Amino acid sequence: MKRKSWKLLLLGGALTFIVLFGMEMSTSGIERIYGPMDGSERYTYDTGELTNASETEKRIAELEKELDDIRKIAYGDAYDNGENRRLPGMPLEEDQAAVNKIADSTSGLLQTASSKGIRFVVSLFDGLMN
Q1: Is the pLDDT score of 107 beyond 80?
Q2: CA distances from 12 to 19, 116, 119 (A)
Q3: DSSP assignments along 101-116, one per residue
Q4: Domain assignments of the chain as residue spans, ordered by start
Q5: Side-chain half-sphere of 112: how many Cα atoms within 13 Å?
Q6: Could you tell me if 27 and 114 are in contact, meaning their C-beta atoms sit under 8 angstroms apart?
Q7: What pLDDT score was predicted for residue 77?
């Protein structure tokens, strides 16, 4: 009987590790796509420089700023008003891209699995305590 209880304890520990590791990975994946969960901004633009960013992200931000300046020069005042943000002759698409739809459904699935995993772990420990 002692041998079986050690196996069950080892199995329970392994399952707990796998569930917690999966929840951590899904949280980091969701934060990578949608940003931090607590509602705070990851980057601050107050001083004109990015904080908490790598060199690559800083370079990308600089290039995006240069592209924005070039678009302002090319489109003139219409770009500042929010018009003509697309190339001339290109139709405006209101639908989301397929990749965004798949990412949304996957993140929803991972969030549901994560919350149900947490509830399952809590119910296990609640059952053991009571």
Answers
A1: yes
A2: 10, 17, 16
A3: HHHHHHHHHHHHHHHH
A4: 1-38+98-130, 41-92
A5: 6
A6: yes
A7: 61
CB proximity list for 86: less than 8 A, separation 6 or greater: 92
Q: Tell me the residue length of the chain.
A: 130
pLDDT for res 82: 55
Instruction: List, for residues 55-90, the tens digit of each pLDDT value.
Output: 888 888 888 888 888 877 877 665 655 554 556 665
Instruction: Check: CB of residue 105 under 8 Å from CB of residue 99.
Output: no
The alpha carbon dihedral of 36, 40, 41, 42 has a sign of negative
Task: Give pLDDT, residue 44.
Answer: 47
- Indicate whether 1 pLDDT > 80: no
Q: Are 44 and 51 in contact (CB under 8 A)?
A: yes
